[in-house]
């Protein structure tokens, strides 16, 4: 293969819920539309196909010598720090002619917070200045990671003036606590805003916990997500191979 651009392997978490894989496929379709010059592949860490190993094998079989593995993950937790590097080390040993570079996670990028704002705006009543937003994330066993995620709610509030509160699926504060605190602060309309890339079993669990609270759409195939993924890809691409469209 003569194309010097590294392949972009976008690695999503994976889920038993088919909506999750379908959403991530739409995200990757949007990437391909934005950068038709790149070989963009979708892989999953678990529960969905194709696996990271299968995609790396396919990229190597196509003759690529470089690939940038870009985690479609909002936080730098165990999957990004341990699971994925281990998978890439094994794949690299199988394919010594293919250089694999792991890009940074998506993180609480300002553009993704703006996308979250768009999802809330689409689900809320126009002109309500006493809107309360429960920003819901998975949660981590690391208090430091949860503190970093809580900054998403704080930054959303700073950008919009909305009342916001963070909540988690797997730890405290829960979504019911967040809703209660927003009501105490005078919010007249409350929305649940998932800090998730795709719908799935966890977003359903959040919604069931507060069935009277509307649920905004996850970030999904938003143009901001496309921009951030491509930025992570470009930053991790080997010097000399960072070719723009």
Automatic annotation (TrEMBL):
Pfam families on file: CbiX (PF01903)
Transmembrane parts of this sequence: none
Keywords from the named record: Lyase, Metal-binding
Name assigned to this protein: Sirohydrochlorin chelatase
Annotated source species: Nocardia callitridis
């Amino acid at each position: 293969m003569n194309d010097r651009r590294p392949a972009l392997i976008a690695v999503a978490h994976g889920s038993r819920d088919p909506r999750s894989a379908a959403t991530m496929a739409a995200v990757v379709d949007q990437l391909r539309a934005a950068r038709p010059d790149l070989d963009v592949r979708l892989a999953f860490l678990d529960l969905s196909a194709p696996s990271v190993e299968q995609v790396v094998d396919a990229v190597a079989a196509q003759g690529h010598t470089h690939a940038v593995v870009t985690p479609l993950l909002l936080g730098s937790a165990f999957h990004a720090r341990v699971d994925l590097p281990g998978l890439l080390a094994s794949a690299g040993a199988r394919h010594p002619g293919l250089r694999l570079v792991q890009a940074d996670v998506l993180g609480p990028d300002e553009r993704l917070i703006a996308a979250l704002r768009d999802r809330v705006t689409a689900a809320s009543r126009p002109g309500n200045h006493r809107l309360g937003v429960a920003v819901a994330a998975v949660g981590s066993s690391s208090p430091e990671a949860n503190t970093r995620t809580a900054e998403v709610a704080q930054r959303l509030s700073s950008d919009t003036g909305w009342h916001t509160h963070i909540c988690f699926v797997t730890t405290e504060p829960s979504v019911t606590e967040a809703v209660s605190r927003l009501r105490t602060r005078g919010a007249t309309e409350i929305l649940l805003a998932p800090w998730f890339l795709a719908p799935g079993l966890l977003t359903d669990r959040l919604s069931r916990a507060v069935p009277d609270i509307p649920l905004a759409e996850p970030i999904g195939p938003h143009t901001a997500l496309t921009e951030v993924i491509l930025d992570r890809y470009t930053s991790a691409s080997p010097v000399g191979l960072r070719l723009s469209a």
